[in-house]
Amino acid sequence: MDEEDTVRGHDGIAAGVPSYRFASPLWALAALLAGLLLTAELARREWKVEHQKVESLQRSLADAAPQRLRESLENTALVLRSMQTVFLSSSQPMDQAAFTDYQRNLRSGDWLHGYVLTGFAGRETAPDDGRGIYRYLFLAPLQGSEALLGFDIASQPENMDALLRARDADTPALSAPFPLLQFRDRQGQAALGVTVRLPAYTRGPAPTTLAERQARELGALAVSLRLEPMVGNALKGSILDHMHVDIRDAGAAPEHAQVFATAPLPADDAAAGVRVRRVEFGGRTWELRLWPRAELGNWTQLWLILASGSAISVLLALFLWSQGATQRRAVDLGRKMSARFGESEARFRVLNELLPALVLLAGAGDGRIIHANHAARTQLGRVAGMRLDALFADPALGAQALAAVADDGHWDSREAVVLNGIGAGLWVHAALARVEVDAAPHLLMVATDTSAQREMTERLRYQATHDELTGLCNRREFERQLRQALMNRAGRLASEPFALMYIDLDQFKIINDLSGHMAGDQLLVQLGQAMRGGLRHGDLLARLGGDEFGLLAFDVDAVQALALAEQVRCCIERSTFMWQGRTYTVSASVGVVMVDRDGRTLKDLLAWADSACYLAKDDGRNRVRVHGDDDDATRRMGEMEWANRLRWALEQDRLLLDYQEVVQLDGTLAPATHVELLLRMRDESGGVVLPGAFLGAAERYGLMPAVDRWVIRTALSNFARLHPCGDTLATCAINLSGASIEDEGLADFILDTLERHAVPPRKVCLEITETVAVRDLLRVVRMIERLRAAGCRIALDDFGAGMASFGYLKNLPVDVIKIDGSFVRNLDSDPMNRIIIDAVARIGHQRGAKVVAEWVEDQRYLEVLRALGVDYAQGFALHRSERVLFQRTP
């Protein structure tokens, strides 16, 4: 067949093709239309959902903006309230140094954004017309603001109006915006700021009436804020990321009414979606207008639906069309799709803009910057056209960097300070290299901002050595300095004696209990400032923890050290602290140790100072004691040693329990076993120590509540293994100390332990000494009634040893009265003892209580005790104490 026949044959086929041959393009078109319609519907629904989200986000951001601004302003008012309290409570006149110290302690610049300074203007009366003059007397920080000293606030109507409003109402007053002379923006204009004011009154309770406020006015306190950083930091984050903001002071002059703005106000509020909010603070109203940025809303899902739906529709149509399409069309389509996803130079530029590092490109010839990425423009400002070496704060370092690049082609990475657009320093880690761009040599500088990292390192170093509340050295730094002083003496680097002082506030817990921990913290700050002001240069004052302070005084003899300690004590005693209408006076006990000989250790010195301080408290508090070799110090050291040994015994489970049986004297009763538990301690060498050696130290150093809880927990958890009779044990008596009685949670602990170990409460008898019961009668009665209501029995131990036993007995709901052994010991030779025992037995039985005689050491006494009506007896004549079963060695 020739070519002509072939052509004719194709024509004939085309003319005679059945209708189903056209199905492929028709199906492809139908699939494409259906897919696009479905994609459009899904996109419409996604747009509706996202639009609702955007509306909700705009509304919530607009509602949050006033609250954030109010919080920033209220934080400023809190700083002023703190300084107002200082003026009300301080007994010393304020000066610039003290004012600076208080501001440094408050650290206003760390948490008040836009903070400029805190000032105090003293009130004077003009001699000519009697008007009020308010001149700045103290400023902090003073550096850079010296020009404001002596400035009269009355010359600024906005500030004077705020001052008078604050004085008459004793509430924070906000000024209208005004130019701050200390700051200039990049165009050289004075930056706008505001002032928040509160009055300062003379020492005494806070005034409550207008006449009293005006009469006691001392002056005015003020905190100045730059509006741009204050508002910018308050609204930073989601609000400024998603919304444009325009804030205006409703009552300010037109030229200063604009407080903050990120963009010009739109011409049509409704079309732009402007939302209006108001902030009222300090007598002024700020009007906020917020409208969405162009990029607000996450339309990624919508575009993804459109793109993927369209792509799927097209691909499905192409798949159907491909049945009748040629290979050339498929190749052309593949080429188009491949070209669509090719890399481009624009993407590289976007990546460079997103880098967090500072990237600067300069010409190799003149060194002038021709390109800066987004991070560099944000951190350094407009630097295009500047010389690269001019960025360095150290010109010599900048010249050295360019010289190194010229010689070696690179300058190794190192720390440097670069200057931003307003002349402030910025720490960076920078490196320079010579590169080729468009076949021309250039200088490339890459730097990483390390300012925050360096600031954090310095802050951590400061926090590691200082107390966060008072700003004094902490215990770790104090002990390091003391250890260094001892090493200097040992190495003959220092020969002069020095003194270690331990200062403990008296009755500090009362202030915490009455006025709360915030009041206690403020008192510690005030006392720290007062003590530090009276020290010599070189002395080291530290807060060791709680209400305890330490002082190292160098180059002093014993007389000078005692005088300095007395001076510190008097300084604390003279301090008057006021809080919420209450006035407190405090005192301190001071222990002094002289370091005038070699061979002293850090542990010894701290222990001696603590011991001397405790002796000062024992002597009546508010006094100074110097450590020496007297009997009191020796006894105190011995008690401290026993207290430490007892702590170790508790930690290592070396406490022991013995039991002594209590015998029934009435033979007609059914036999029953009653015991009293007795405490012992196993020492480090395995010997047994009786309680008389360590209980005194335990009571003095507050260890008895822990010991009593150990006895209760151990006895009840092993109740069936205390005595050979096992579960048939009728009663187990446990002694409670005075410190445990004062523990509000003791009753809960006893009842929870009984329930946990399923011990019937009627089998437990808790013994309370007469002297403890009388010391805090109301608290003891409340606890006794609660335990008796649960089924426990209560015994009054050592009855008769006190001075008012019979007078208090009628008020104590007890089940058992144990007669003190001093009345039993000489029963056969002292008729008065028989009379007392008879009286106690009669009164006890009248009260419905059982009576027990202690210290029965002679069998002959038993018949006498029966005749006198005593129910039980206890002593060596009846049973010698034995170790409880579960602690006996096999």
From TrEMBL:
The parts of the chain that form a coiled coil are none
Domain CHASE: residue ranges: 137-235
What stretches pass through the bilayer?
26-43, 302-321
Q: Which intervals hold domain EAL?
A: 639-890
**GO annotation terms (biological process):** signal transduction
Q: Name one GO molecular function term.
A: catalytic activity
Keyword Transmembrane helix attached: yes
Question: Which InterPro entries does this UniProt record tie to the protein?
Answer: Biofilm_reg_signaling (IPR052155), CHASE_dom (IPR006189), CHASE_sf (IPR042240), EAL_dom (IPR001633), EAL_sf (IPR035919), GGDEF_dom (IPR000160), Nucleotide_cyclase (IPR029787), PAS-like_dom_sf (IPR035965)
GO cellular component, as recorded: membrane
Q: Which Gene3D superfamilies match?
A: 3.30.70.270, CHASE domain, EAL domain, PAS domain
Database matches in SMART domains: CHASE (SM01079), EAL (SM00052), GGDEF (SM00267)
- All copies of the GGDEF domain together span 496-629
Cofactor(s) listed: Mg(2+)
Is Transmembrane helix among this UniProt entry's keywords?
A: yes
For this UniProt record, the keywords arranged alphabetically read as follows: Membrane, Transmembrane, Transmembrane helix
The places in or outside the cell where this protein is found are: Membrane
- NCBIfam families named in the record: GGDEF
What is the designated name of this protein? Diguanylate cyclase
